[in-house]
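Appendix B. One record, verbatim.
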Amino acid sequence: MSGGEAEAAADWTPMVLAVAPNGARKTKADHPALPITPEELAETALLCGEAGACMLHLHVRDSEQRHTLDVGRYREASAAVRAAVGRHMVIQVTTEAVGRYAPAEQMDCVRALEPEAASFAVRELVPDADSEAAARSFFSWVAEAGVQAQYILYDAADVARFNALRARGVLPAGPQFLLFVLGRYSAGQRSQPTDLLPFLAARQPDDPWAMCAFGAKETAAAVTAAGLGGHARVGFENNLLLPDGSVAADNAALVAHVAESVRRLGRPLATADRARSLLAGVAG
């Protein structure tokens, strides 16, 4: 790297590039390389780490490939990933309900597991005013336990509600790591980079943020986020397509396309340790 290139790179906060390799809905019928077993997840983590990802967004499945929040399966999968990649990847578990779990069950899973990091859909964990007391207690515990929280938001109204919940003390004070979902889990969903704009207009400026997107413009949306100082999550959970519309061979191919594009912007990619350092000051 030349002196000028090094100076330009120093102006950027390194980008946290996460991979979501399977999600809760897709199966081997959707793509044969979609990882299900702990061994497959470990191999995927290793390949995606080599391609540029520093975080794994982890879903686990039962024996019939159905989404589960089973703590034992989480521990088995996490151990396999750690054996493959060591500390070179942050493991972030999901608490997604997928219509199968109530908020109390989602919270109990995290309390039992005490993961390094976890993602929380605000709509699911704090669905109404009656749920706020339990949410306040839980998210206070999350912060005290040192679990790095990421809050999933689906539109600008979600961002506004998140800000209000935080202001009332239901969610922890201070900057929080947000994930903006550009679209919905629906057949034929295609996200656009411009889908980011309402989220950015509604967010508080101190909150670090990432995005995930659906369809062949996933890379374009991720690169747009990179140029705006955000972070990104890519992978088979939301998208199977490369930018040209062809089906990716595996998750690592999607990661590699985004990683190369971000590097061409001159923005460095975060290592797992750098990601931990960047997010260490984020409350919760």
